[in-house]
Amino acid sequence: MNVQRFASSITLAACFALGGYMIWLGHRSVNPQGTRPMVETKLPPLTLEQISSLDQKTFERSLPQLQQAMGQPSHPAAADQETLTAIAGKLRQTGESAPGYWPTVLRFIQFASSTTAPKAPPPGQQPRILSNILSRGLMRGIREVGITMLLDDGYLENGEFTNCRVIFNQNAVQLRNATFKNCVFELPVTDTPSPFIKKTSQLLLGSNLGSVSIPKL
Q1: β-strands 165-168, 148-151: how paired?
Q2: What's the rounded Cα separation, in Å, for the pair 202 and 88?
Q3: From CA 194, how far away is CA 170, in angstroms rounded?
Q4: CB 170: neighbour CB atoms within 10 A?
Q5: pLDDT value at position 66?
Q6: What is the per-residue pLDDT for 174?
């Protein structure tokens, strides 16, 4: 009888041990070499307001959470201007070497500018292409309202865009005395933007996106 009880106790202990091991496996995975277990961590979701309140060092580690927050289905207008301005300021202070820095910056510019441009055309429309247009010398330059414009490899002086969707690509555009009022800015989202896109994004980050004046770019 004692032997049976002992055997039952051993079996029960083994079951508890196996169950605990399976739970442990659910929280860990094995790396490709199979030598050291790695803990799988999932970043907790944060709101844009919470992200804007983070100290600089924590913010720089939270760029994936910023991208996650921008990807939420809620309309960008749900983010107030004070929150977006605070995030833009922290992005300007973040080094380019931070993981995911450029994709986050490039997405943020479009996201934030959408809040100031409710009358801009929606995404996906066929753009007009501004290539090799020389408006230098014209008294009023170019005035466009409510269009989708692709700025692609050209020269534009004295241009004014209002309620427009302005799309940049990797090709440099020479702008002088250009003004953008209540426009959405789209830049190619990539880990390795061109020098032109880097310069443009930093200029936009440091501006009031509702009214951007570019003396020279």
Answers
A1: parallel
A2: 10
A3: 6
A4: 15
A5: 95
A6: 86
> Which H/E stretch holds residue 72?
none
Size of the chain, expressed as the number of residues it contains: 217
Q: Which residue has the higher pLDDT, 89 or 20?
A: 89
Cβ within 8 Å of residue 143, ≥6 positions away: 159, 160, 162
Token pair for 214: 């570019």
- From residue 12, alpha-carbon distances to 15, 26, 132 in Å are 5, 22, 80
Q: What share of the chain is helix, strand, coil (3-state, %, to 5)?
A: 40, 20, 40
Residue at 36: amino acid letter: R
Are 49 and 66 spatial neighbours (Cβ–Cβ below 8 Å)? no
pLDDT, tens only, 33-88: 444 444 444 566 889 999 999 999 999 999 999 999 998 755 554 578 899 999 99
Provide the 3-class DSSP secondary structure of residue 156.
strand
Residue-wise pLDDT for 161-214, tens only, equals 999 999 999 888 888 899 999 999 999 999 999 999 999 999 999 998 888 988
Query: Hunting for tokens 């804007």 — which residue is that?
Result: 52
Number of C-beta neighbours around residue 67 at 10 A? 15
